[in-house]
Design goal:
Number of strands: 8
Keywords: Pyridoxal phosphate
Bound molecules: pyridoxal-5'-phosphate
CATH architecture: Alpha-Beta Barrel
Distance between the termini: 26 Å
Shape: globular
Number of domains: 1
Function: Pyridoxal 5'-phosphate (PLP)-binding protein, which is involved in PLP homeostasis.
Strand content: 15-25%
InterPro entries: Ala_racemase_N, PLP-binding_barrel, PyrdxlP_homeostasis
GO molecular function: pyridoxal phosphate binding
Helix content: 40-55%
Family: Belongs to the pyridoxal phosphate-binding protein YggS/PROSC family.
CATH class: Alpha Beta
């Protein structure tokens, strides 16, 4: 058996085990295969093994792969998004996970409206408050989302996304994921018009099991499926 296939089988098993441990149904958790830097053949192979959702962090790379692969999978833009690159992906993405400022919402609204599309979006929250991380601060989230709800009719807020610190401290990772879930509950209680908190995008190769136990609905896994990335290979 090739490695992508066996890696995927292994990850599905670990996802199922984490769901069992946390008393969740495994259809509440969707695997996003993160295909950044991975070549088209490998992406196709993953699709043949049953992958339905792929994540890219660079708009042009998403667009390039979309031209070949198309709508056989759902495309998730998971990395920080520059305003001037929205145009490459607006007609291709199923969901944008990295909404973190109103200037980005302005551009998405303008582009989405021009093609009459509703864009599923997640608000990226910097729960861990690391300087290096993108995302709005937890305390700004409710005002930010109310603003989107009131002023950006083509942006559909479906939930939240966060990245845990890169650390071996499992308790710290867990507290970050729990923080996102608690914030989602708090936002849900506000009953903001056309905003839902159905999706929580959290957990990567190193921490997706903890994320599932804390309520993740999307886990974004790259390295554990495709191996270590080689950023020099194009
Ligand atoms: C690369 C990336 C991932 C996947 O990380 P791995 O450690 O390779 O599983 C997840 N989320 C985002 C935003 C990424 O950029």
């Amino acid at each position: 058996m090739n490695s992508i296939k066996s890696n995927l089988i292994n990850i599905e098993k670990r996802i199922n085990d984490s769901c069992k441990t946390s008393d969740r149904s495994n259809d509440e958790v969707k695997l996003i295969a993160v295909t950044k830097t991975v070549d088209i053949d490998a992406v196709n192979e993953a699709i043949e093994c049953g992958v339905t959702d792929v994540g890219e962090n660079k708009p042009q790379e998403l667009a390039r792969k979309y031209e070949v692969i198309g709508d056989r999978v759902k495309w998730h833009l998971i990395g920080s998004l520059q305003t001037n690159k929205v145009k490459y992906i607006i007609d291709k993405v199923y969901m944008i996970h990295s909404i973190d400022r109103l200037s980005l919402c302005d551009e998405i609204q303008k582009r989405a409206q021009s093609i009459d599309k509703q864009i599923n979006c997640l608000i990226q929250v910097n729960i861990s408050k690391e300087e290096s991380k993108h995302g709005i601060l937890e305390e700004d989230a409710i005002d930010f989302i109310k603003n989107i709800s009131n002023n950006y009719p083509n942006i559909k807020v479906k939930g939240l996304m966060t990245m845990a610190p890169n650390t071996d401290d499992k308790n710290l990772i867990k507290s970050v994921f729990k923080g996102l879930k608690d914030l989602a509950n708090k936002i849900d209680n506000e009953n903001i018009n056309s905003v839902s908190m159905e999706a929580l995008s959290m957990g990567m190769s190193n921490d997706f099991e903890i994320a599932i136990e804390e309520g993740a609905t999307f886990v974004r896994v790259g390295t554990s499926i495709f191996g270590q990335r080689n950023y020099n290979k194009k």
